[in-house]
Write a structure and sequence with these properties.
By secondary structure, the chain is mainly alpha-helical. About 75% of the residues lie in helices and about 0% in strands.
Length: about 190
């Protein structure tokens, strides 16, 4: 009889599975990646994978949730290092520029997921919307601290920069959006 799998081994295997799925889905697209590819990349059997996630859709949702926590956490850590409220908002775009310049940048994972499976998957669509709402709330909190009522334009400039950089492969939209936000703020 095989030894029982420990909670720690379950945690490690689940993380390895999510790491493999995230890398494959982000690099190649959700629909282009089969579960056999996820199995091979994770080193787990299909039986083990399906014990964690009953369907590929469940794996996609879990991957997006975990990515959201890391992505928004990294953004917040960067932005909250800045004391001045206006500079704090501008630093959102500095962080975006760094992300856009990373090797393998393929745009927004949530927009990509929405484009691929959002219309046919209510679970993925709900996760995409939850991420966008949470990102909007982050931006809104930082913008409100400036005393200016420009949260929506700042959010839209950030989203537009993300989409444009993802399509063009050029990090310049972050700088251009930063300049537009600085113009919205006017002179300090």
């Amino acid at each position: 009889m095989p030894a029982a799998v420990t909670d720690e081994q379950n945690r490690l295997d689940r993380e390895a599975l999510l790491d493999a799925a995230e890398k494959l889905f982000y690099e190649n697209g959700i629909q282009a990646v089969g579960m056999d590819q996820v199995r091979a990349a994770s080193g787990l059997s299909l039986k083990r994978i399906y014990r964690f996630f009953e369907a590929k859709e469940d794996l996609v949702v879990a991957m997006l949730k975990r990515r959201d926590q890391r992505w928004r956490g990294s953004l917040a850590a960067h932005v909250e290092e800045v004391e001045d409220p206006r500079e704090r908002v501008l630093s959102i775009f500095d962080w975006l520029a760094e992300w856009f310049a990373e090797p393998g940048f393929r745009g927004c994972a949530w927009i990509n997921a929405h484009g691929e499976v959002g219309p046919s998957s209510t679970a993925v669509l709900a996760e995409v919307r939850a991420h966008k709402r949470a990102f909007h709330e982050q931006v809104e909190t930082w913008v409100l601290a400036t005393g200016l009522a420009v949260a929506e334009p700042v959010f839209l400039l950030a989203e537009g920069a993300i989409v444009t950089a993802g399509i063009s492969g050029d990090p310049a939209p972050a700088r251009q959006a930063r300049e537009a936000v600085a113009a919205l703020f006017g002179a300090p």
